[in-house]
Amino acid sequence: MKLLFVGGDKRTLLLAGMLKKDGYEVSTLGLREGDETRKDFSSADVILFPYPFAVKGGCVPALNGMTIHPEDVLEKACAGCLLLAGRGLEPYALAEERMPKCFRLRKYEQDAELLERNADISAEAAVFETMQRSDRTIAGMRILVTGYGLFGCALAHRLKAFGAQVWVAARRGEVRRQAQDDGMHAISLQQIRQIAGQMDMLLNTVPARIIDEDTLQAFRQGTWLLELASAPYGFDRDAAAALGCRCDVLPALPARYAPVSAADALRGTVSRWLKEAE
What is the pLDDT of residues 40-85, one digit of tens each? Predict the structure, then answer.
């Protein structure tokens, strides 16, 4: 089976190497210097786009800085090709003009095992980033985690295990009740402003603007606000910085912190799907 990796990051490059060792015929585009030479897209049985975003800003993210337009790739791909992808590819792969090609699209975010492993890696990375930005131990720190999905939950539990006092802000009542049962201080999003001034650090995992400028003003100057979600982000970094908070946006934590583990997590999902397709 011939695999073509189109774009990605360091974990994608590592994944390509892993699958090559597994016996697959592997080629890459946008991952290594010099691999931008002409590719025979029509010979690929499977085209693997990046995770978590297959397309961002109209282009496929590429490690070597190459500009890759998804429509160009799909135009050259063979009919019936299996496409493995993160978010953003659907409008291109399922466009009316490409329906005759009958692409088979599998999205990484549909695999529960991958999402859980990725959340665990992200949580460990976030704890590491927290340690890097404090001259205190996590034990005894008052930390607010916004969001209690897979990532937020894994992060809150790790912080609590280190001895932090963890507050969890979530929109839904049943999620707050679960956080409370897990030993966290649970609050609604509207209550963030009330407790913001007591917090030593904020870790946001919600990819939506949930913290407005009035709430940002309630944090003490010098408080670290770490943005761990994707755009449009949970707060306005420039506004927070102007108010005296210290801010960092930390995207793609698994690929940056533990690319080998992140690649291995993807490997499990991809290997299962490839065996199903054989």
Answer: 788 999 999 999 999 999 999 999 999 999 999 999 999 999 999 9
Contact 139, 271 (CB under 8 A): no
Domain 115-255 has CATH 3.40.50.720: yes
What is the spatial distance between Cα 8 and Cα 31, in angstroms, rounded to a whole number? 7
Q: Tell me if domain 2-110 and domain 115-255 are identical in fold.
A: yes
Instruction: Give domain 2-110's CATH superfamily.
Output: NAD(P)-binding Rossmann-like Domain (3.40.50.720)
- Report whether 225 contacts 219 (CB < 8 A): yes
CA–CA distance, 153 with 120 (Å, rounded to integer): 9
Mean pLDDT, residues 171-199 taken together? 98
Q: Is 10 exposed, middle or buried (0-12, 13-18, 19+ CB in 10 A)?
A: middle
pLDDT at 11: 96
pLDDT at 36: 72
Q: Do the strands 2-6 and 25-29 form a parallel or antiparallel pair, or are they unpaired?
A: parallel
126 touches 156 (CB < 8 A):
no
Q: 7-22: per-residue pLDDT in tens?
A: 999 999 999 999 999 9
Please, what's the b/e burial string for 139-163 (b: 16 or more CB within 10 A of its CB; e: otherwise)? Answer: eebebbbbbbebbbbbbbbbbbebe
Tell me the domain boundaries of the chain. Answer: 2-110, 115-255
The b-or-e profile of 206-215 (16+ CB within 10 A means b, else e) is: bebebbeeeb
Distance (Å, whole) CA 257 – CA 198: 29
Task: Please give the radius of gyration of the chain, using alpha carbons only, rounded to the nearest integer.
Answer: 21
Indicate the pTM of the whole model. Answer: 0.92
